């Protein structure tokens, strides 16, 4: 793994949280220098949690904003509450917050065994399909202008 590296450099499979942060911070600095004028709005987190009156978590959506785009990382609703429009309400909620913060685009991905049709019903457009996973599973990339 260390072939053709300078003598004072090594590639290591062992890492710390601080080292991971250093890599991410380096990328952010690079992006801010090179992606002007998009540097006005960089990153933020938008999370909404669905819970019962007894504080039992039964769903939620976790998103990150970056350069005027909201990326939906995680969306989950407990099976007991699916089909009751809670997923749509979670998506609408983060879209509203993101739009208020200046976002103009939302992006996400989902697998064929998850919910590509659900996102399409919420107004998302499939712009890419990655095939080649076992069992014929496909990964869908989706976007929506807000």
What order do the helices and strands come in, and which of them pair?
Layout: H1 17-34, E1 43-51, E2 57-66, E3 69-77, H2 86-100, E4 105-111, H3 116-121, E5 125-130, E6 139-145
Parallel strand pairs: 3-4
Antiparallel strand pairs: 1-2, 2-3, 4-6, 5-6
Number of strands: 6
Shape: globular
Rg, Å, rounded: 19 Å
Please estimate the helix content: 25-40%
Task: Give the neighbour order of strands across the main sheet.
Answer: 1-2-3-4-6-5
H/E topology pattern: HEEEHEHEE
The low-pLDDT segments are: none
Number of helices: 3
**What does the main sheet amount to?**
6 strands, mixed
- Average per-residue pLDDT, rounded, comes to 91
Class computed from helices, strands and strand pairing: alpha+beta
Please state roughly what percent of the residues sit in beta strands, choosing from under 5%, 5-15%, 15-25%, 25-35%, 35-45% or over 45%. 25-35%
In whole angstroms, how far apart are the ends?
45 Å
Task: Report what the structure shows.
By secondary structure, this protein is of the alpha+beta class. 27% of the residues lie in helices and 33% in strands. It has 3 helices and 6 strands, in the order H-E-E-E-H-E-H-E-E. The protein has helices spanning 17-34, 86-100, 116-121; strands at 43-51, 57-66, 69-77, 105-111, 125-130, 139-145. Strands 1-2-3-4-6-5 form a 6-stranded mixed β-sheet. Strand 1 (43-51) and strand 2 form a beta hairpin. The longest helix has 18 residues, at 17-34. The radius of gyration is 19 Å and the shape is globular. The model has no long low-confidence stretch (mean pLDDT 91).
